[in-house]
Amino acid sequence: MSEAGPAPEADGAPLFLLEEVPAGDVLTVAGAEGRHAVDVLRLGAGERVRVSDGRGLLVEGSVLAAEGSTLQVHVLARHDVPAPEPEFVLVQALPKGDHGPLAVDLATELGVDRIVPWTAARCVTKWRDDRIDKGLAKWRSAARAASKQARRPRVPEVTAPMSTRQVIGLLGDVDLTLVLHEQARRPLAQVDVPASGTVAVIVGPEGGITDGEVVAFRAAGAHSVRLGPEVLRTSTAGAAALAALSARTRWA
Question: Between the N and C ends of the chain, which has fewer C-beta atoms within 10 Å?
Answer without folding.
Answer: N
